[in-house]
């Protein structure tokens, strides 16, 4: 069978996008998902995203990590909005559904602003913060992000959390409103060039621990620049928005 796909990237976090409104994609075929993401034997991506019809929302987004595990993905959500616009499912605004609940989003000139879930699951530890932003995130400040062994340390910390583990974000503060981030992603089992739910966790963790008093944070990542804004009341973060570019790369077909 020939599978038509589109490749998108959001600040270098890259995805194979599939229009599955026909419900023909074999979701249980983990080997196929892994093959699509394989950078040597497949298309190459951090994850696979299916767009499906939904009775109550503009569309349903289903995200698979490269290893076939399912969760929410912030950059993937932004790319899903750009893809849904290309497919003419939406125009400039949308309300779509994903595994963590509904998401409002707008797209303007390739820049997608995506409303994330409210964040109230935040644990401040001695040297790190854990936050749930649609998926699990460990956040840790380091002195020299360029020299930091993100893969080795990220892998170690990822498995120190009980199943399903945690993504791991290493952070360097640049100024009051700017934090550079490098992320080790579970399910990809490698450092990726950006992580949307990750920078969201970082912005909230830095606010929660008093590293910043701002509610609009710039987050340079390896693949570009992201922005996170939010409101905070009694330790609960609402109106959380992740903003950045979402870009079509190429399309093609692959035998599955
Ligand atoms: N890159 C994503 C996060 C993808 C999911 C993550 N690997 C997990 O398993 O939690 C993002 O942009 O949020």
From TrEMBL:
GO terms, molecular function: diaminopimelate epimerase activity
Chemical reaction(s) catalysed: (2S,6S)-2,6-diaminopimelate = meso-2,6-diaminopimelate
Domain of life the protein comes from: Bacteria
Compartment(s) where it occurs, according to its Swiss-Prot or TrEMBL record: Cytoplasm
Residues annotated as binding substrate: 13, 65, 74-75, 167, 196-197
A cellular-component GO term for this protein: cytosol
Pathway linked to the protein: Amino-acid biosynthesis; L-lysine biosynthesis via DAP pathway; DL-2,6-diaminopimelate from LL-2,6-diaminopimelate: step 1/1
Active site (UniProt): 73, 195
Chain positions of site Could be important to modulate the pK values of the two catalytic cysteine residues: 137, 185
Pfam families (alphabetical): DAP_epimerase
InterPro entries: DAP_epimerase_DapF
GO BP terms: lysine biosynthetic process via diaminopimelate
Keywords carried by this UniProt record: Amino-acid biosynthesis, Cytoplasm, Isomerase, Lysine biosynthesis
EC number(s) recorded for this UniProt protein: 5.1.1.7
Subunit structure as annotated in this protein's UniProt entry: Homodimer.
Function: Catalyzes the stereoinversion of LL-2,6-diaminopimelate (L,L-DAP) to meso-diaminopimelate (meso-DAP), a precursor of L-lysine and an essential component of the bacterial peptidoglycan.
Family, per entry: Belongs to the diaminopimelate epimerase family.
NCBIfam families noted in UniProt: DapF
Protein name per UniProt: Diaminopimelate epimerase
Source organism: Polaribacter atrinae
